[in-house]
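#data-curation
PF: Archiving a pair of folding outputs for the training set. Convention for this channel: one message per protein, sequence first, structure tokens after, nothing in between. First:
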Amino acid sequence: GGTLDVYAPFAAQHELAAKAKVSYKTFTGAGVGGRTEGTVIRARELRLGGASMAGPIVDLSSMSQGVTANSEAAGNVGTGFLKRFDITLDYQRQNIYCEPNTLHDFPETWNKSGMVIDPSDPGFTLIDVLVDSPAAKAGLRKGDQLLAINGTDLQKLNWAGYVAQVWKAPSGTRLEIKVRSGTVEQTLSLVLQDLL
């Protein structure tokens, strides 16, 4: 999920996807019930009481079943927000104190390539390619299997290593992607860019 997961009924009622300048409909996570889908946007700010964060990534669920289809709650705040604060729970007074920590001012990054992969898939198969993204412009397609990035065999790379090379790299970074499309292997080039 994102820094903020907004459940489908709340997102629809408030027409949040339509209010975003840029949005991507895509895979947003996976859990016991399977994959979840929705629209990913960047909000101006997330504020909870006196704690705030600029530019959070928000997943707007489009699911009709499962927890993100729950009409009893608006959503779920994730670690993208919480990790930016030292949190103290005062059970007696029923208060939560959030003091900004060293991570507070770091900008939140999101997919800069347009390649969407299920982190639970050890085969690095694309389950989606975002429209007008660097991956789409390079010719990558849903169903392609990534084999290597900049010469690094992905079978030797875990999910965190993939994220470091593809999501955390600065915009403007050129990636050479070795990919298998059906029975054809080829190397494609793309340049990372901020999509949100």
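PF: Second:
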Amino acid sequence: EIFYYDSVDENWYSLVYYSGTELQTANGTDQYFEPQSSEWGTKIIDIPENATALYFQVIEDCSNNLFIDNIRVGAVAGSDASVEFVWAKGKLPLVYGVPDKIPVLIKNLGASPIINLKVYLNITGTNNLIDSLVIPGLASLDTMQVDFMGFNPVLNGFSDVTVSIPDDDNNSNNSKTFISEANPNTIRYVDSNCCN
């Protein structure tokens, strides 16, 4: 159950109550459990205007795990897609590492579903590439990983790898840029968040 504090009349009130079955996003187990990326649920809750504090009360019934992540308090934009991650390699060997697919994670942070979202890849510098793809649909607060066509650099040197999406209600999260160096024989790639 989630409670909120009303600053006008200085009392706590119940905002919403969820039963355990309403919150369960994975099968029960008697083993150690840590949720996978596909085992998270999404809840959107309107918070009253005078609410100044929230607290979560958990009443367990044969369970001892409740995982809460990515709580966002505030107005939810109607249309807000975000470029969350770009997994380009810091160093890419010309012979061994090509073609290099560039995975990207896109998230819909808005309250409305997004239909036919165009995602652009623009690589500029020593090596160049322009590509785009379309995500057919992305529900509110969902994420999708997409892969661009293979990148085949032909010259040693640095290039900017930029992934972008069209303007929406929040343009501050609509692009990410990563620097990649094509070279004869070294690969550099470290990212604990990659790839589904």
